């Protein structure tokens, strides 16, 4: 009996935690190169006669798949809270990357048995990222999108995808929030002066080296940009938790305009 009660309580708690998932409509973006699954949340009292900011969120590697749901595990509740939907009405998009693929052209190399990540932006973008770019092109062609207020955020693998998206489409975004990600610090010139960037990382991250975030911030500074950088001294890889809890995050992001 106790086991049954615990299972019921656990199911009830998880269901309550995921209640906001229903706010994100399930969609499929069809392309010649395969389909992209995504979820999209429209503002309350959405009207095509108005214009709204657009937020693109790229999930981490653990949320890859084909269920069109797991990508909502981290970050979706932040935008879906009643308070934030009132303060920051926006169109919020959560695409899902298929298994065994990535948002970024990243590969892990071993140097003296120490793994490091290398990012190659000179070749074509990964197919999932190309599909996201095509989806954004279609969405931003709508009259109800405010193309001066388009934002991108992502965590871990999604943070890596955020940096690569900034490189490939620097003219789209007004602000970016890469969390515990990484990228090519030598290829920031195209977006350094155009996009407001707030980088988050955990100082104790043993999955993705925080030094790469520092290198990118340094690269942006060297290219004439003015990035914000927050390093959480006690956070490991899950620095998205304190990042999402930062009281000024959304205020900062939605204040930015091209």
Which tags fit this structure?
258 residues, alpha/beta, Rossmann fold, eight-stranded mixed β-sheet, single chain, 10 strands, 31% helix
Word description of this protein:
This protein has about 260 residues and is an alpha/beta fold. The protein has a single domain (about 25-255), classed as Alpha/Beta hydrolase fold, catalytic domain (Rossmann fold), CATH 3.40.50.1820. It is about 30% helix and about 25% strand. The chain has helices spanning about 1-15, 75-80, 80-85, 125-140, 155-170, 190, 210-220, 240-245, 250-255, and strands spanning about 25-30, 35-40, 50-60, 90-95, 105-110, 115-120, 145-155, 175-180, 195-200, 230. Strands 1-2-4-3-7-8-9-10 form an 8-stranded mixed beta sheet. The longest helix is centred in the N-terminal third of the chain and has 16 residues, at about 1-15. It is globular and about 55 Å long. Mean pLDDT is about 95; it is low at about 5-15. It comes from Mangrovivirga halotolerans.
Rounded average pLDDT:
93
Number of strands: 10
Q: Class by helix and strand content?
A: alpha/beta
| β-strand amount | 25-35%
For the record, the CATH architecture stands as 3-Layer(aba) Sandwich
Distance between the termini: 59 Å
Bulk shape? globular
Number of domains: 1
Low-confidence stretches: 5-16
What is the H/E string?
A: HEEEHHEEEHEHEHEHEHH
Q: What is CATH's topology name?
A: Rossmann fold
Keywords: Signal
Protein name: Prolyl oligopeptidase family serine peptidase
InterPro entries: AB_hydrolase_fold (IPR029058), Peptidase_S9_cat (IPR001375), Plant_Biomass_Hydrol_Est (IPR050955)
Domain Peptidase S9 prolyl oligopeptidase catalytic: 130-181
